[in-house]
Amino acid sequence: MKTARWIKYILAALLAVSCFVCLTACSFGSDISKKMMIQGIGIDKEEEGYLVSVHYLRSGEEVKMDFIQSQGTTVYEALQNLTLQTGLIPTYSHNAMVVFSKECAQEGLTNVFDFFIRYHETRPTVDLFVAQDRAETLFQLQSEGQYALATQAKSFAEADSATNKFAGSTVLDVANRMASEYNAFALPELAIVDEHVQLGNTAYFRDNQLIGYFNREQSRGYVAAVYTIRNGVMVLDIPDIGTISLKLENTSSKITADLIDDVPHFQIDVSCKAYISEINQDLRKKLSLDVYEKFETALNEKLKLQIESAIEQAVIRDNTDIFNFDVALQQQQTEYWKVHRDSWAQELTKIKYTVNVTSSVDRVQQEASPAF
Q1: How far apart are CA 208 and CA 109, in angstroms?
Q2: What is the reported pLDDT for 267?
Q3: First to last CA, the chain
Q4: Strand runs (DSSP E) across 46-175, as ranges?
Q5: What digits encode the pLDDT tens for the residues 314-370?
Q6: What pLDDT is recorded for position 23?
Q7: Is 34 within 8 Å of 94 (Cβ atoms)?
Q8: 187 Cβ partners below 8 Å, 6+ apart?
Q9: What angle separates helix 110-118 from helix 171-178, to the nearest 10 degrees?
């Protein structure tokens, strides 16, 4: 009898759970038509408050990408005011990108960034960009009846690993640097060229304000020194051989902090592996082993110059610690950092540095290609 009673209780419980699941699913299905599934957000500074430009998915007979704008005193208010125009409730879990206008970047991102790290629906992996001018111009641009930026958002987010000619950053990356002792970070720039949205230079910031830009050569040097080049291209002109294109893969870097006469000296060591992708020369010519040493020497020198150019501009000229030298000092020269942490902006102008680059140009692909 007791067994039969327990079986009844279990069946009743299972029935209750299944009913709850069905009701929840039905409720969710009916609510989705009332949601504005945001895909991208652009932010511009206005005389009073902010203008947000939004790409969002609109459900109906067919799912469609749409565009809408709204204003508010704060970014959050501007986004919530979207509901006044559409009756739809904004959701942020599908958002792929945030684009700040140049004016916002110059004024400082402090007032426009907080929403993206504090609001419970936003994601830390959203990619961040800076517009060459106004963000709304990028969001309004259409190509063949579609919003150009919306169709390219994912591609731009992945382009840093595909080219390594700019430094990509997410909400989490920037939040970590904003919370560090010395606030400096970089964001990729988006520009309109011949009616198309393209990646531009790399913008770098100090204390949340836009300070300057790296060109693409300097951007590669910055990425090589601070991050990892996974799929870069380096073009070299080699005397008596011609122009060679190398594919760079899996660079690694290390920054060592020393003190020489109580002055910080940083050694940046970078190593990389490269493959020959193209050589402009007669196919009948065979490459001797000593030629590879020329390739490696030329590659080392060019990448070294790119790193040095980025350091000279951002760190020495613009007093922006974009290379995270402060972190190296905290970890390796703790006593010095305790004394000089409050005056690091002044000490930064006195630093010394050396850059060492070593590379290995793979010889295997040359044996297999060309195959005729």
Answers
A1: 5
A2: 97
A3: 85
A4: 50-58, 64-72, 89-91, 97-100, 127-131, 142-143, 146-147, 169-170
A5: 999 999 999 999 999 999 999 999 999 888 888 998 899 999 999 998 865 555 445
A6: 46
A7: no
A8: 100, 105, 128, 129, 130, 167, 169, 174, 202, 203, 205
A9: 120
CA torsion sign for 333, 336, 341, 343 is negative
* DSSP three-state, residue 207: coil
d(CA 329, CA 60): 56
Of all helices (H) and strands (E), which one includes residue 24? helix 2-31
Low-confidence ranges of the chain (pLDDT < 70): 1-32, 59-63, 152-168, 282-285, 363-372
SS3 state at 338? helix
Round to whole Å and give the CA distance between 326 and 336. 11
Going across the sheet that includes 232-238, the strands are 232-238, 242-260, 263-279, 352-362
Question: In this predicted structure, what is the pLDDT of residue 372?
Answer: 41
Can you give the pLDDT at residue 24?
46
Q: Which residues of 307-321 are buried (b: 16+ CB within 10 A; e: fewer)?
A: bbbbbebbbeeeebb
> Which segments of the chain are extended strands (E)?
35-45, 50-58, 64-72, 89-91, 97-100, 127-131, 142-143, 146-147, 169-170, 184-193, 196-206, 209-214, 232-238, 242-260, 263-279, 352-362
